[in-house]
Amino acid sequence: MPDLDFIFNPKSVAIVGVSSVTDSLTNRNFLKPLLDCGYQGKIYPVNPHMAEIMGLRVYRSVLEIPEPVDSVVSGLPASLVPKLMRECAEAKVKAVTCFSAGFSETGEAEGTELEREVVDIARRGGVRLLGPNCLGVHNPAIGCTFEAGGSRRGGHVGFLSQSGGNTRELILAGAPRGICFSKAVSYGNAAGLDETDFLDYFARDPDTRVVAAYIEGIKRPQGFTRALRAIARDKPVVILKGGRTEAGTRAVMSHTSSLAGSERVWDALCRQTGARQVTDMAELADAVLTFSYLKPPRGRRAAVVGIGGGASVQAADDCEKAGLLVPPFPPELRRELRAFTTSAGTGIANPVDTSPDVYWEPALYRETAKLVSEYDGIDVVLVMFAAVQAAKRGVQELKRQIEAVIDAGRSMSKPLAVIVFTAGMVEAEKMASEVQVQCLEAGFPVYPTMGRAARAINHIVSYSERRKL
Amino acid sequence: MPDLDFIFNPKSVAIVGVSSVTDSLTNRNFLKPLLDCGYQGKIYPVNPHMAEIMGLRVYRSVLEIPEPVDSVVSGLPASLVPKLMRECAEAKVKAVTCFSAGFSETGEAEGTELEREVVDIARRGGVRLLGPNCLGVHNPAIGCTFEAGGSRRGGHVGFLSQSGGNTRELILAGAPRGICFSKAVSYGNAAGLDETDFLDYFARDPDTRVVAAYIEGIKRPQGFTRALRAIARDKPVVILKGGRTEAGTRAVMSHTSSLAGSERVWDALCRQTGARQVTDMAELADAVLTFSYLKPPRGRRAAVVGIGGGASVQAADDCEKAGLLVPPFPPELRRELRAFTTSAGTGIANPVDTSPDVYWEPALYRETAKLVSEYDGIDVVLVMFAAVQAAKRGVQELKRQIEAVIDAGRSMSKPLAVIVFTAGMVEAEKMASEVQVQCLEAGFPVYPTMGRAARAINHIVSYSERRKL
């Protein structure tokens, strides 16, 4: 197992192919983010025709840089990469992140041959290759990144991804949800370092406690199975497999030229190793959020609290379809709830479909959440808010109610998850994003729909069940 | 089959139980929306202890109203409804919408008995009963509604729903998406008029071209099957069945005291009649949108255009999982696309994963959409935008690109659907809602994810296929 710390924690980065066109892809994806995020290592821009860029000296070539370089990023056209790789070998560069595309993913003989050549030069020269056709490393704790728009706090999620776009999406969309990374890596065609290397790295990385992966193909099936089995014993692993259909498999070929493998084999692999498989990036984000924030429930029995008859029926259906249980409450608990919940137009049997005067009164809604959490026939409490309705009351009233539920959550022994449903309406989305901050500060995860919450909680419960075996 | 026009197009509405507390539920749900939406009929507020409300004379009882009343809304406590119903019978009121809850849905003998009494009085007195435990009728064309926040334009969607919350949600969340109603009705416990009556009404209503339903239970199975079979032959019907699991079935009991019936029987009913079954309100809205806006595709072969390798793989997987096909493009078409699409880091085999310089150049992105639409091996064109990426460019550039695609859509013979993906980020949601307006004005539906678009399009294709049989 190689020590990849120089890749994830480089002390210096050279960016080859910076441009006098300020907004060029290479400037925008690599140089600017390092500067914006206050990268703590040294930055060496490289371009034979420039002297300075953004206040930094520009070097004519990698060979001209006077100090050792941990990591080189290539923004050059594919045809120039072999020459660069030879120079990197000569300069004893430890790793090259090849952002350049135009290799095997083109499906053309020329690109495939070029990729083979680059891999060969790198191997003989002792240079580790990331990519080609990738964005490389995101390590927010040291400001080493290709995406300045995410959270700058270091966290505990390790993400390995064959898609740069998916990596960027999880960084950007994860930030407001409280998803923070130990390290993320976009590794494209995986011609050099591959998914097995990254799983091994994350297994040993003490900062990484939850592992997520977007994988299109497996380079070394035996090694991967071994690595997945090993890491999944210690850390939850969430995997999105790209290319699960015929058309998806073809798309994988033109994206990273990976061999997608059959869906059935993949399902079996996840079942055997205990990795949790998801079907899209939203579910991946939900699962990562859950493993990061939710205290693991002892079982799959949920208490559901909210308002609205249709919403309660849907919540119950969503929970059970996702593999959770929504057991009926016993008579004593129903009596306690009924003491302050009118019987007209409400339900208290689980789900609790409460009345407006309870839903909008902090003491009563808090009491509802607290009472159901104390029933020993349930393992997790799910409280729903509908920002659609709240829009008529205003965000302040919603915040007050959220605060009441957070207050209940702090004193309960069961895990609490909050659902803020917006039906996709812009005004409601704004309110939801405000109250999400409240919940995250208190350590409670927020989901946009009950269905997504239930699927995510099923992942953590299933993971825990397997560990107990 | 009763003529229910006096329910959906009442010439006068009496609201019993208006309150001096301005923001009371009855005032807010009924009186205020009628005033806000400029209801064209007469409004008679009723309360024995008030003289005037919001500039209208208040009557002491229904019996005091000097003219005939089509529709009475009851906001009274359940125990007072029998007396009201007797007065309505005496005053020859045609229909009563019973907003009041506290009947059979309480699961208590008292409420069940009260409901039986009210039904009995109504039947003997020749008064049609809507509810109890419901919001009643939404007819935007005449301003008769319980929800002023939706679109005020009359449209072609008829919605029957046992949940008031779900009705409100489709009205509110549907408005920015361009979903407009001929009529919607929330009918709660269905103790009087039921789903069969409404299906029959929508079958004959010329304004209704698409029918949507949220149903928790069937009162008259034989009549319902007959009505569903009849209407589904002429108009697309989209059904969300509440209570498809054990917990959902129990929730249905405390919501509308309906007998949910087994999921298997329900699936078979939809298969036999050609009704399209959906699993949540989001899918219901997507399907209704599609039946309202998308020119029916001749088949299920989709051309997919967008940017991003991971996104393209996901799009292909989503389409095929939903039942669409994403056939590979022939060599001639690939050559045409390749003429202006660099081979590095792109795909042109379907999905098209284009390069940034095509994606952000109106003429080239328009040409891409146009070229793929002309291939006779595809039936529908799906163009993806990611507002997450666009957030870095700004909304103006995104709008320009959308305009280019709309332009291509106008001249193509195949239907076009637009996907604007936001990953749930607030800034991106704002941009998406702006460009949604553009697309709708041009008549093209917008979906938030490829998965949702594909499932919705599968509904319209499957519906068309069945009609051809």
Mean pLDDT across the residues of chain A is 95
Envelope shape of chain A: elongated
Which oligomerization state do the chains in this entry correspond to? Answer: homodimer
The largest β sheet of chain A comes out as: 6 strands, mixed
CATH architecture of the largest domain in chain A: 3-Layer(aba) Sandwich
* End-to-end C-alpha gap of chain A: 29 Å
| Biggest protein-protein contact in the assembly | A-B, 87 and 86 residues
Protein traits:
Rossmann fold, 45% helix, 6-stranded mixed beta sheet, homodimer, elongated, 17% strand, 469 residues, 3 domains, alpha/beta, 19 strands
Task: Provide a compact summary of the structure.
The structure is a homodimer of 469-residue chains. With 469 residues, chain A is an alpha/beta fold.
Task: Furnish the topology, listing elements before pairings.
The structure is a homodimer.
Chain A: H1 5-8, E1 12-16, H2 25-36, E2 42-46, E3 52-53, E4 56-57, E5 71-74, H3 81-90, E6 95-98, H4 109-125, E7 128-130, E8 136-138, E9 154-161, H5 164-174, E10 181-186, H6 195-204, E11 210-215, H7 221-234, E12 237-241, H8 246-256, H9 263-273, E13 276-278, H10 281-293, E14 302-307, H11 309-321, H12 331-338, E15 347-348, E16 352-354, H13 356-359, H14 362-374, E17 380-386, H15 387-393, H16 395-411, E18 416-421, H17 426-441, E19 446-447, H18 450-468
Parallel strand pairs in A: 1-2, 1-5, 5-6, 6-7, 9-10, 9-11, 11-12, 12-13, 14-16, 14-17, 17-18, 18-19
Antiparallel strand pairs in A: 3-4, 8-10, 15-16
